[in-house]
Amino acid sequence: MPSPRFRHLSLACRAEAERRLVTRHLVRRSESRAFTLIELLVVVAIIAFLLVLVAPAITSRKSANDLTSAAYEIKGALETARTYAKANNTYTWVGFFEENVSIASTNPATAGSGRLVMSIVASVDGSNVYGSGTGVIDPTYLIQVGKLIRIDNVHLPLFAVGSGTGDTFETRPALQSDPTAGYNYGRFGELNAGPPNTAPYSTPYNFQYPVGNPAPTAQYVFRKLLQFNPRGESRVNGDSYEIRRVVELGLIRTHGSTVPTPISGAGTSTAIYAGNVIAIQIGGIAGNVRIYKR
Prior knowledge:
By secondary structure, the protein is of the alpha+beta class. It has helices at 4-33, 37-87, and strands spanning 92-100, 114-123, 135-136, 142-144, 149-155, 187-188, 205-209, 220-222, 224-228, 234-236, 246-253, 277-283, 289-293. The chain has one domain.
């Protein structure tokens, strides 16, 4: 029978053997669960490939969201002008100007592409303040309504007109056509171009920014105007044209000052653009504003 001393050594050896066995088992499990360098590289390559596929969709979605935000900002400005005219029994005007977004706003302003500038003014005494002549409305007869609005990376194009058969972008209400200028007496777009590819055509009246008394030095002169009378009815360029059933503003996204090239109708007033586009329409009588997106 082994002595107690030998029994103690035997138990110690057995414990050490068991400990080593457990250690080897854990090491094997750890090694079996670890990733090799090749496996890690494969996973990274798959993730990079998926990001390439998803990135255009993310960019397009951001662009659509930005354009929608711009459309609702314009809609809010138009509704503000109409509400002010009705609430104060006066006339208001919304002026549209497009400048070069690749540089900071200058004084006087520099026409270009990529930044829409809007200003709302109202008649001080409630009249249309035009007088008998044409040209710049006397700035001392006007007050500013709200702040000057600047929206970057947008452009006002002239879209092909809707079919008038539905409520989508392509089937939105059609514009009124006139013998002289076609649809361009009832919409705003290509503000810095010349006839026949600008809208509206003539600019018998315009107003400056800022306004007030005494007359300040002008930074902007707005020659493309939408007027709201005390009843809330809208007219292009004030009293120049009769009330239209609808008035339209086109809206597309730019890349800085670079305007997207249309898929057809480039350089004309019937351009068709791919991708995200928006048409904002204002009712001539009711003055309601609707947004049509694609």
